[in-house]
Amino acid sequence: GCTEAEELRGDPWVRAGMTVPLHPRIVLSPKFATTFAEAEAKLAGKSAIHATQRSVLLLDGEDIVVESLKLDGALIVRAVPGARVVIKGAEVTNDGWDWSAIDEDKEDVPEVDRIRGFQVLRHAQMEYNFLEPGDYTIGDEPLSIEEVSSAPASGDTRGILEAHEVAGVIDIDELRFALELVESGQGHLFRDWGSPSDDVGPKSKMLKQLAALDANYPGGLLKYISNARTLLKASKEGANPLAGWTPSVPEGTALEYGTSEFLQYEQAGVDEVGYAGFVLVAGGLGERLGFSGIKVGLPVEKVSDMTYLQFYCESILHLQKLFNDKHGTDRQLPFAIMTSEDTHAATE
Asked: Which has the closest alpha carbon to 216: 103, 99, 125, 346?
């Protein structure tokens, strides 16, 4: 779905004696696509994206479609569920991001950067945060960031939160997180916040506590709320989620990525994923990598800084949504993490 601008292609990197060819950094979050077929459908055609070598693109949302985009710089598009975004005829140019080699002699280089051998210098970017459900188009006359992130909201609680973001009491990520909680029926948490100038300290402390809870529960607080409602309902009805399950050993076959046979099996997997469970083995530390934390806490890549654990959880959640959307169900996919004495506390 992407072509690289030949005329602006630079020399490859040489780092630690290794030659690394550079290409546009394009990151598709698990919410955008977890299967080849999904990505192919949302990137309309093989040349939907025309990007220069230095470009950075992050697409984070389940209803984002790219029809045509020319990119020379950095572009980030995030959309909440229900926000349908079409990128059509858009041209984005800015100073973008640079990947700079680290100074091995400096002691204050973060472990994650030292492992990778470079740091990201974020000079400029165009960022869209679609926080309300609806239909949006990023085209030759794109919406401004203010139009997207500060759109009028319905309900007193939502208005209170947006006023706090405008006043700088909370940032855009905290606003998005809080609005997700409101949409899940937790608006009472913020109903008494009042004016942005009132009791800033307790509000900040509360958000930090919510963020810690969100980070320490597999799938976050929204998953916790959903699980609680599902389990309470199932318990009340006397349901057994394991009733009728029969273990079996599947047969396998070798597949070539992107072929028609691959797509056929991929779709078959999506059709059956609702009957699967997921187990993550996370008992080891990252010491041999030069990282003092748990390995699942390392970022998958440096555009979004999403950790392996978050990427894994979001992928499961998106597969769960694909299954439920197709079958009209509300199935919750089971997920277990195996930890050790070294990793249990940090994983929690």
From this structure: 346
